[in-house]
Design goal:
alpha/beta, Ribosomal Protein L4, Chain: A, 6-stranded mixed β-sheet, 6 strands, 43% helix, flat
Length: 362
């Protein structure tokens, strides 16, 4: 009995396996892929694609092609021809009508002229006695003055031009070689100018040292233990309100220059101006009252190079007349400096001061 049960069970198992084997569907063999159509043949490519689609997908229907637009009937073409004919006829009519427009435009100036004539008749008459504007005269061009020619005269040929109150040259006075014929020494002239400038310094600047400031001399705080820097008096130069270290004090800036060297430097400066013929003597320059206008007219009439130095000898009226001129300055013959002579290009000496100047050289 057991053997029969085993046989029936084995038979059932084999039957179920056979059913499973028969239930599995067989795979269909793969079809070869369709070749892609060439890019240049559009129509053939479309047909090949459609056939390939039908073979690859038999269940789907091929896509419907869009319907082509039907050609317009002949009636439409006739209407187009009629429209073009009408347009051509209109352009011809416009072209024929253009000359008439031109004629009308040409007729306009005549009407405008008639209107202008009527306006002229109505307008009031123009007064004939009205003077016409005279043409402006051309601007006069200023005559350029000729440049002064530099003259280098020998020591024995140097002269001073003498002019009167009107600015006219009267005569020439020969200058002495001892005073107006020296060769310049740059080092001596520089030393003399420095000495004159230093002598004008006042030297009155002053500062206080720590000993001249009022205040306590006690130490501000103890030397150690505070964590701060050590400090002494409150009058220290390092503190605000303290004294000044090595500050200026009243002093004299004068430089020692020998008397003979100072005189020689002045003679060299005068010789340099006499070499170019820039020394002038004013005769009859005595004024009763200060007058800047008279002195200005005199110097302008001379036509000399500016700036100008006017040398006087105790003549306050002349000095007051010159001091308001921007291009001139005055100097006393007794206090004449080398810097003044070198700073000015022309030297005008009064007759009184010239006698003192030439007498000092003898």
């Amino acid at each position: 009995m057991a053997d029969e049960k085993d046989k029936t069970q084995n038979a059932a198992d084999s039957g179920s396996e056979a059913v499973e084997k028969t239930a599995k569907p067989k795979r269909a063999p793969r079809k070869p892929a369709a070749k892609k159509p060439a890019a240049d043949a559009k129509g053939a490519g479309v047909k090949a694609a459609e056939t390939a689609g039908e073979t690859a997908q038999p269940g789907k229907a091929p896509a419907a092609k869009p319907a082509r637009r039907r050609a317009k009937p002949a009636a439409d073409a006739k209407a187009v021809v009629a429209k073009t004919a009408d347009a051509d006829s209109k352009t011809e009519a416009v072209a024929k009508a253009k000359p008439a427009r031109k004629r009308a435009a040409a007729a306009k100036p005549a009407a405008a002229k008639a209107k202008a004539a009527k306006a002229a008749e109505k307008a009031p008459p123009v007064a004939a006695d009205k003077p016409t504007k005279a043409a402006k005269p051309a601007r006069k061009v200023k005559e350029q003055k000729t440049a002064r020619v530099a003259v280098d005269r020998a020591p024995d040929e140097r002269v001073a031009a003498v002019f009167d109150a009107d600015g006219k040259q009267v005569e020439e006075i020969k200058l002495s070689v001892e005073r107006f014929g020296l060769a310049p020494d740059i080092n001596l002239l520089h030393l003399a100018v420095r000495a004159e400038q230093a002598a004008r310094r006042r030297g009155s600047a002053s500062t206080k040292t720590r000993g001249e400031i009022s205040g306590s001399t006690a130490k501000l705080y103890r030397q150690k233990g505070t964590g701060r820097a050590r400090a002494g008096s409150v009058k220290s130069p390092t503190r605000s309100g303290g004294g000044t270290a090595f500050g200026p004090k009243p002093r004299s800036y004068e430089m020692k220059l020998n008397r003979k060297a100072a005189r020689r430097a002045l003679d060299m400066a005068l010789s340099d101006r006499a070499e170019g013929g820039d020394i002038y003597v004013a005769r009859g320059s005595a004024l009763k009252a200060p007058s800047t206008a008279i002195v200005n007219d005199l110097l302008v009439a001379l036509d000399i190079a500016a700036p100008v130095l006017v040398v006087t000898d105790d003549e306050p009226v002349v000095a007051k007349s010159v001091r308001n001129l921007s291009y001139a300055e005055t100097g006393e013959i007794g206090r004449l400096s080398v810097e003044q002579v070198l700073r000015n290009r022309s030297i005008v000496v009064t007759e009184k001061a010239f006698s003192v100047l030439t007498g000092a050289s003898q």
